[in-house]
Amino acid sequence: MTQRIVVATDFSTRSDRALRRATLLARGTSARLVLVHVVDDDQPARLVEVSQREATILLTELARTVHDVDNVPCDAKVMLGEPFEGLSGAAEEFDADLTVMGPYRRQALREMFMGTTVERTIRRSRRPILMANAVPSRQYHRILIATDFSESSAHALNTARDLGLFHDAEVLLLHVFDAPARGMMFGATLPQDQIKDYIAEQERCATINMVEFIGRVGFKPRRQILKLAEEPTGAIIKNCARYERADLIVVGTRGQSGLGTLLLGSVAEGVLQGSEIDVLAVPLPQPSGQEEQP
């Protein structure tokens, strides 16, 4: 069960979503919140000092309000450095079970996830990160878990369960399966029945793998969903979440590189980019004995 949650805030409306979602989670799990604001230290020392002092005042007042109004224990911490480094560092310092961030800032003329603070924090952190995209109103009631049957997706499912997110929620398990010869069969103008039989066989294999995966993780979802990969997998996952009215998507983000940064898979990136639904991104644990590089 969740014990400590780091909440990223830059005092914007976007980060208010992160705070409200984290507060709801803390109420349901009796967790302690740690509000974190990062001051950029790549500026004159005097400006850093002033920014740090002002942020400390605002953050302390905010933590007191959360404690008094929401009855949730709450601490405040101002970090110095790059935002993504400060947030991942705070998560390690407080041994956080979860970091909650608001949605990334989106530009009017283009959708750009790569290079945002959220993306860089997810790459840096070795702990789960919840991107709170939607306006929070209640505990999660329908959760969509995307799986490719890998160790990464199994760990993501188990982490969401250990965080207490499954309590009173319907959990749906989605797998997007491929039919690699489908395009070639269409190009060869084979009979439609033959193509359909081939796709049905691929779906049958996916069903068998789904059953094996469920047995391996020891968790039975409310429903299992199989979708043919007719468009990018990230788009299929988001479309399925909208159709099923899910309020949380859970996705594994692969693992750690030798440089201490996350190997963010294309599927995870596709889900995180432009999602209007909350996304829990879960990295694989760092292998024992492997130290993070500076």
UniProtKB/TrEMBL annotation:
One of its GO terms (molecular function) is ATP binding. The keyword RNA-binding does not apply. SUPFAM superfamilies: Adenine nucleotide alpha hydrolases-like. Keywords: ATP-binding, Nucleotide-binding. Residues 1-131, 140-283 form the UspA domain. It comes from the Bacteria. The keyword ATP-binding applies. Belongs to the universal stress protein A family. This is Nucleotide-binding universal stress protein, UspA family. The lineage of its organism: Bacteria, Pseudomonadati, Pseudomonadota, Alphaproteobacteria, Hyphomicrobiales.
